[in-house]
Write a structure and sequence with these properties.
alpha/beta; 5-stranded mixed β-sheet; 4-stranded mixed β-sheet; 15 strands
């Protein structure tokens, strides 16, 4: 035996030893599924769902079964908030978790009081109480989730009663099933498209004429996106971004809980237009009811022969706002941490698994059938002059009737409040608003007559509509407190890949929390560095509410 061999023998096996029992449990969970690298997050969900956490021995067994390094499995598992990694000697979490949303709309509705009441009364041995970022139930604030049950207007009493009654399973709302959708003309357009009665060229021209844009944040013209993807050599893929994590945004959830097949038919039409070989539907884990609906209805499409088995592959997020950024979402679909990619190349050229990829938001696809059946001019005419199309606005905060409001592009927040939400809540006067969720900035009521749309006057004010999430504040609210809430969200959700965002969001929170006079020079320096140097839109847009706080709300500083 050589000296090198003796040294290797003396060191013994590297890493954690393999637990045969844990390996058997993991193998049973994975069943006959292929051990593909891109399924890592799906497999982590299987373990988390079955055992309530991810133990070190199960992670070791999964790494062995998938032929991956333990470090690679661990770094993915520890990246996502909905995975509970438990190392040797650590205590697993309580068997039941109550998540309380503490994002801005729920903050206004008393989330802090709810968290405090639960922490004082819940038995920590049986119930874990945790804060959670936006759950997409802003119209029912304060929102919570107990087990897999989503709860609007939550109270400590109601949640603890549910826990005592084991009332924690997912509740699926009534929705339009495949049979009902087909009885009302659903999938006839898809049939025409597949028979070439409606060509891809005609579809793209119709989308362009209608003014349909991406409705998840960036607002890129849909028809133009199809042209770009088709211009690159195949094979091509398609992804659907259902990671609706922008605080104040919930329109996609509402559409999928009511009429999921409009989005699914739109997706199949778009995939045909760009000759995509498969659709990956990425849905956030915060929506258990939507996930149940999609599993059920995708299976129904396959059984009916409308979609080939596996053509629409549902992928489940795991609690990471950054995966709303399209390239980070693709990384997550590939089973990796959701780290945004450097661009160029853009995903239309080099996307999922290195292939040209068409990516769309849920609502964008939801409109395709109506646009083709009723005509481009019909859709374009629904907007205000100079602002083609209608939009779905997620409105929450200090209004009488929050919810998803269908209103023209170019509508003003004042019109949304008065004409669509029944006015301000009793005893509240309009003070400020977020025009586009946490990223879109915060504007005073004096700017409440600016048309809400991509670009235009809103952009001149350093704001944007983004995901069309409007949060309304009143004279009872502090712009500084709202800004601090938004920056804490960004700090928590930064993926950590780039220093300007990782360190900048944390530093901004520290400066905003400082008692006394704000260090405005320091905040402005951070703002400049983050905008100029961050890899993706999270770090670039995070300073928006700080900029507006310093510009428009001097009385609240």
């Amino acid at each position: 035996m050589t000296m090198q061999e003796r040294r290797r023998k003396d060191r013994g096996p590297k890493g954690r030893p393999l637990d045969d029992v844990a390996l058997g449990e993991v193998v049973a969970l994975l069943g006959s599924r292929g051990r593909r690298r891109d399924l890592l997050i799906e497999f982590l969900h299987l373990i988390q769902d079955r055992y309530g956490h991810l133990s070190a021995r199960h992670l070791r067994a999964l790494a062995h079964e998938m032929r991956l390094a333990q470090a690679e499995v661990y770094e993915v598992a520890s990246f996502y908030d909905h995975f509970d990694v438990v190392k040797e000697g650590e205590t697993p979490p309580a068997p039941l978790t109550i998540r309380v949303c503490d994002s801005v709309s729920c903050m206004l509705a008393g989330a802090e009081t709810l968290v405090g009441a639960l922490q004082q009364t819940a038995d920590p041995a049986s119930i874990r109480v945790v804060r959670a970022p936006c759950m997409g139930r802003c119209a029912g604030a304060p929102a919570a989730r107990i087990g897999d049950r989503e709860v609007d207007h939550a109270t400590a009493e109601s949640l603890l009663r549910m826990a005592a009654n084991d009332d924690t399973d997912v509740v699926t709302p009534a929705y339009t099933t495949l049979d009902t959708y087909r009885s009302e003309g659903g999938y006839r357009l898809l049939d025409k498209v597949r028979k070439s009665e409606v060509t891809p060229e005609a579809l793209m021209a119709t989308m362009q004429g209608a003014g349909l844009r991406g409705l998840g944040g960036a607002g890129f013209p849909a028809g133009k996106k199809w042209e770009f993807v088709r211009s690159y050599a195949g094979p091509r893929l398609m992804s659907i971004n259902g990671d609706e994590g922008e605080p104040g945004t919930f329109k996609d959830r509402v559409y999928l809980e009511r009429d999921p097949h409009r989005t699914l038919e739109g997706a199949l039409i778009a995939a045909h237009a760009v000759e995509a070989e498969r659709i990956y539907f990425y849905m956030r884990d915060e929506y258990p009811a939507v996930l149940h609906i999609l599993r059920t209805e995708i299976a129904a499409l396959e059984a009916a022969g409308i979609a080939a088995p596996g053509f629409i592959e549902l992928r489940r997020g795991a609690g990471a706002y950054i995966c709303g950024e399209e390239s980070a979402m693709l990384e997550s679909i590939e089973g990796k941490r959701g780290l945004p990619r450097h661009r160029p190349p853009y995903i239309a050229e080099v996307g999922l698994f290195g292939r040209p990829t068409l990516n769309h938001n849920v609502e964008t696809l939801w409109w395709i059938r109506d646009i083709v059946e009723k005509g481009a001019q019909w859709f374009a005419s629904l907007g205000k002059e100079g602002h083609p199309s209608v939009r779905s606005w997620s409105v929450s905060g200090r209004v009488k009737n929050p919810g998803v409001k269908l209103a023209p592009a170019g509508v003003t927040v004042r019109e949304l409040i008065e004409e669509h939400c029944g006015g301000m809540a009793d005893g509240h006067s309009f003070k400020a608003y977020l025009p586009g969720g946490a990223s879109g900035g915060i504007l005073p009521a004096s700017m409440g007559d600016i048309p809400l749309d991509f670009g235009g006057e809103l952009a001149k004010q350093g704001a944007f509509v983004g995901s069309h999430a409007v949060v309304v504040f009143s004279d009872h609210d502090s712009a500084k407190a709202a800004t601090l809430n938004l920056l804490k969200f960004f700090k928590h959700e930064s993926c950590g890949q780039c220093t300007p965002c990782r360190e900048g969001t944390g530093k901004m929170v520290a400066l905003l929390e400082t008692d006394g006079t704000l260090d405005e020079e320091g905040l402005r320096d951070l703002e400049m560095v983050m905008r100029d140097s961050s890899i993706c839109g999270l770090g670039q847009a995070a300073p928006n509410p700080v900029n507006h706080l310093l510009t428009h709300f001097r009385e609240d500083i």
